[in-house]
Amino acid sequence: MKKIQKHSIAIVMIGFLIMPMAAYAAKNTIPMIPSSFAQLAEKAKPSVVNIQTVKNVKGGNRMYEQFFGQPFGNNREMYEHFFGPFFNQQPRDRKEQSLGSGFIISESGYIVTNFHVIKGADQIKVVLSDKKEYDATVIGTDPMTDIALIKINGKNLIPLTLGSSSNTPIGSWVVAIGSPFGLEQTVTAGIISAKGRILGSGPFDDFIQTDASINPGNSGGPLLNLDGEVIGINTAIVRSGQGIGFAIPSDLASGIIDQLTSHKTVDRGWLGVSILDFKQEEQADGKVSGGVFVDQVFEGEPAQKAGIQSGDIITKINDKKIESAKDLKFTIAGSAVGERVNVHVLRDGEERIIKVKLGKRSTGNPQVIAQDDGYDAFGFKLKDLDAESAKKLGYPEHIKGLVVMDVEKGSAASETMVRHGDILMKIDNKQVTDLDTYETHLSTLKKGESVRLLFRRGNSHVFWIDIKK
Which of the chain's termini has less CB crowding within 10 Å, N or C? Predict the structure, then answer.
C-alpha cells in the first residue's frame, strides 16, 4: 500500500512538472520540421501548370559563309557544288521555344506567371498536371514587377489561394513547385532565408529569399506556406550561388493581379519627387525620428502643384508612418491614380500637412548603359553621367557625377558595397562633376593612401565608403 502511495505521489509530482512545461510550450510554440510535404504537394499539384512558349524570329543567314567563310577561296562553283544545298539558302524564319511555370488562381482559368516567361511569345501553351493542354491568351502584364496574367478555357480547374507574405516570418518552411529544366511538377522545400531583398531588377524590388531549390523553368511557379497558400511567385536565382532563390511577395502581387484581372493594366500613383534616405545623425535636428528627405520636386508634377518643396522631410502618408524611401515609394505606388493623400512634412522644424492629388506613374523601364573599357586604381569602371544616361538608369536628369559601369573582380572596389549603376558624387567631400575632375584628384593620392567616396543608389539612398589606392 505504501508503495502505491509513493508511486501516486511521484506521478502527481511529475504532473506538476509537466503542466508548466506544457503551458510554456503552448505559449512559445516552435514549429517542428514537417515529417512530410506529400499531402501539401498532392493538394497543390492540380493548380500548378507548365507553360511552353514559342516566339517566331524573322530572318536567317547563310550559316556556313557567315561562320567559316568559303573553304574553296573564290571558287564559287565548287563551293556551291559541295555546300550550296545545305547552307546557301534564302533567309528563313525560326522558332524560339522556352519553358516556365505558373499557377491557377480562379476556376474561370486565370493563371499567374512571370512576365519574362511569356514576353514576346507568339504562342503560349499551358499543360496541366493531368497532361491536358490549352492555348492561353495574355490578359495583362506588369513588367515593373515581372508579373503576367494569362487565361485558358478549361473546366474543373482548381485554384490556389493567395496568403500573406508579411505574416510569414523569416525561418518559416516553404515549398516551391514548378518545372525546372522542363521537369514538370518538381517539388522542393526549404525556408524563407530573408525578406526585402533588392536585386536591381526594377523599381519595386522587394523579394523573398529562400533556400528552397529554384532553377530555370521554376519562374512563375508558386512558393507555398505549409497551409498551401501562395506567399510568393518564384522569379529569380543567383547563378553563381547555390540554393539561393527569390520570389515576389504575395502582398505585392495581389494588388497587381487584381488590377490586371479588372483592367488588364496596372496604374500606379505618382507624387513627382526624388527622395533620399538619411541616417539619424545626418538629420537637421534630434526631433526627427524617421521620414525621407525630398531631394528634388519635379516641375508640373503633383507634389510641386500641391506645394511640397525640396528639403522637406516626408514623415507620413495619411496615417502610415514613412521610415524609408522604400516605404514612400511602395505606399504611393500602391495608391490609386487621382487619389488625394495627406502628406505630412517637416519644414524648418515645423510639421505641415499638404494634400496632394496623385498623378499616374510612367511605365517606362530603366535601361542598362553599355560598358566601356578601363578600370581606375580602385577597380571601378566609371563614365560621365549625362542627362540621357541618367534617364536610362532611372535617375533625375539634374544629377551630376560618374556612373559605375563595372567593378573589377579581386580589386579593392570589389570588397565594397558599390555595384553597377551607382553614382559617384563626391571624393573627399569635393563634388565630382566629370571624369577629368575625378582622375585629377585621384592622381594626387599616394599609393596606400585612403580616400572617402560618396555614392548614390537609385532614388533611395546615399552612402560613404573608405578605400585605399
Answer: N
Q: Which three cell numbers stand for residue 386?
A: 549625362
Active site residues: 116, 146, 219
- Average pLDDT of 213-218? 87
Same domain, 256 and 333: no
Q: Please state whether beta strands 461-468 and 450-457 pair in parallel, antiparallel, or not at all (unpaired).
A: antiparallel
Query: Which of 263, 285, 305 delimits the end of a domain?
Result: 263
Same domain assignment for residues 429 and 355: no
Domain edge (last residue) among 221, 237, 263? 263
Q: Is residue 203 part of a domain?
A: yes
The residue range of the domain holding 226 is 173-263
Q: Residue with C-alpha cell 536610362?
A: 392
* Least confident range of 175-179, 237-241, 376-380: 237-241
Asked if residue 136 belongs to a domain, the reply is no
How many residues are there in the chain?
469
- pLDDT at position 105 is 97
Report yes or no on 352 lying in a domain: yes
Q: How confident is the model at residue 324 (pLDDT cuts 50, 70, 90)?
A: confident
Distance CA 468, CA 463 (A): 17
Number of domains in the chain: 3
pLDDT of 359-375, one tens digit each? 987 654 333 333 334 67
Q: What CATH number should be reported for the domain holding residue 239?
A: 2.40.10.10
Give Cα 124 to chain centroid, integer Å.
24
Angle at 144 between CA 457 and CA 255, to 5 degrees: 115
Q: What is the CATH number for 299?
A: 2.30.42.10
Return the percentage of the chain with pLDDT > 90, whole number: 36
Q: Which residues contact 450 (CB under 8 A, 6 or more apart)?
A: 466, 467, 468, 469
- Distance CA(84)–CA(64), nearest Å, equals 9
| pLDDT tens digits, 9-25 | 444 444 444 444 444 44
Question: 361 with 302: CB under 8 angstroms?
Answer: no
pLDDT at 62: 41
Q: Which of 207, 224, 234 is nearest to 112 (CA)?
A: 234
